[in-house]
Amino acid sequence: MFNLISLKNGLENVDGFFFGGVSTGLKPNGDNDLGFIRADEPFMLSAKFTSNKFQAAPIVHFKRYEKGFKSNFLLLNSKNANAMTGQRGVDDIDELFKILNQKTPLINPIMSSTGVIGYRLNQEKIRSGFDKFDLNQKSSDSVARAIMTTDSFKKEIAFRVELENGKSFNIAAICKGAGMINPAFATMLCFILTDAAIPQSDMDELLKETTKYSFDAVSVDGDTSTNDTLMLLSSGKSGVYDKEAFKFALDKITLEMALNLVKDGEGSTKVVAFEVKGAASDDEASKAAKALSNSLLVKTAIFGEDPNWGRIASTIGASGIECDSTKLAIYYDDVLVYDKDHPELDEAREQKAHTVMKKDSYRIICDLGIANGKFTAYGCDLGHTYVKINADYRS
């Protein structure tokens, strides 16, 4: 047994790391645009990256290291993606680390960037930020803001995990992202820090698994960025670890951050969980759920609060999975909008469905009636007003 306790101040709860952010002029409004996460002793890390074939220079640079390497420094910047910059973009990162190494000893340093594609890094401005860094700082707020671009709100979360034996460890994350989000990862940077004494093999296993049901299950506009990065960093400083408890906390963090991306998605007004069940397999359910979350026709129906179930059924049929209209049932929350005995919406059910669709968050449940496969994907409309919601849609 274990308890999960929500904490304030994000990354500041995790032992063994230092972090902060400064303004270098990359953002014209003077907001933070350069950040760091570092440790006195090398930390273990696991990472997942975009599926886009044109991966940005920081990802290319990262992949030069041997599998399972440790690092002691992560450099972060916004406003410039350092993507589609070729070998020069990678060389620019090496040059920056040569300069930074004169100020603090670096071990396998890594970088992550977000912003405009196609431009080389402004070396002069970034170097100026090195002189502003307080490398003994612990400011979750300043580093979280340093990676924000079109985000309308800061994204950070932290938990203390208390085990039955009275011992505990901490896990926290910061994240950015608001557009170019597709169910093949999201346009985002997300950095999860923990002081749990987690083995490298568990880091790799659990990060891969949690991504399937969180960042790989959300959609805003159907695009996939060149820079998408998810990293899990562990200092091991607590000396405490429980796999079940860690998995629970990690899953909660990644799902909440993924939903935050959808809530912040280029002016979206609603977040919808597309729950597909009764499919021939989990993979088939995933394919249909992601097709629904990514459909522009469905997104416009959500924005227009139109309970036209035809768009839902059509998208499922077009997804290529095994399905049968005589077995299909579609619900908006608990309101039945279609099955073979109710192919037409009567006035009462249409009004109930419309009432559901006026909410900031709800579920569209599609029971295929074939077998036991299930998957839930998350999507939104493409409206123009951001509305806060409070949702926990883990299937």
Automatic annotation (TrEMBL):
It comes from the Bacteria. CDD domains: OAT. Pathway: Amino-acid biosynthesis; L-arginine biosynthesis; N(2)-acetyl-L-ornithine from L-glutamate: step 1/4; Amino-acid biosynthesis; L-arginine biosynthesis; L-ornithine and N-acetyl-L-glutamate from L-glutamate and N(2)-acetyl-L-ornithine (cyclic): step 1/1. Substrate binds at T149, K176, T187, E266, N390, S395. The record marks T114, G115 as: Involved in the stabilization of negative charge on the oxyanion by the formation of the oxyanion hole. The record marks A186, T187 as: Cleavage. GO terms for molecular function: L-glutamate N-acetyltransferase activity; L-glutamate N-acetyltransferase activity, acting on acetyl-L-ornithine as donor. HAMAP family: ArgJ. This is Arginine biosynthesis bifunctional protein ArgJ.
